What does this fold into?
Amino acid sequence: MALEPHVLAYYEQGEEDGRLRDGVNRLEFWRTQDVLRRAMPPAPARVLDVGGGSGVHAEWLAADGYEAEVIDPVPLHVEQAGRLPGVTARAGDARDLPYGDDSYDVVLMLGPLYHLPERADRVRALAEARRVARPGGLVAAATISRYAGLHDGLRTARYFEPAVRARQDEVLATGHLRPTGDADLFTDAYFHDPDEIPAEFAEAGLADPVRHGLEGTAWLMGDMDAHLDDPERRALVLEALRAVETAPTLLGASGHLLTTARA
It folds into this structure.
């Protein structure tokens, strides 16, 4: 199963490797680290990073002492991740993982779900993650909030552009962001309503999922980038977001959610 050509072309531009390393996007990176480090078993343990991109997360996992493997459908990402110390990488599809049952202590899906617009494909990918995770192992999957585009459009004032507003209004109605050729608006993707997530996990055989809002409302603050540059302020921001990360009424405010469950 291959990526749609426009999705592959988007990632072959090579920009994904730097996305989480700069600016306010660092908040998503550090909060993902924060949630995972509290949920994962101690190292050493085997971690499969499905759709792991260029290895941005696998890099710190390997540094923490985990045995990290990336599987990704983008050749450039496989090449980049495979160059990282302690990380192995191969090409593959989240819906058809080439591994045996009960093979990994942790299975991460930090990218695939929002590139699977059909619910059946998302459930299939989650079921594959559950299959290759050992009994009791951690499965963690990232989703983009249904409301992320609207919030970001208001933050950047792009929502006042009619074409942008029309696309974001469609996302609100359907969850589906359709390809436009506008790199600033991402590529073909599915944005979840937070309330959809538990049912998809349950259908895949993953019980009692816990949803974590990663950025809360902090990513919408105009000066958040400067706060993240200050280690003391950054620690306070992370502490504040940790305190409200599972509050149901705040989940949709985050740009990204990370949902964890046990296989």
About this structure: The chain has a mean pLDDT of 94. The chain is about 40% helix and 20% strand. Residues 26-39 form the longest helix (14 residues). The CA atoms of residues 138 and 262 lie 5 Å apart.
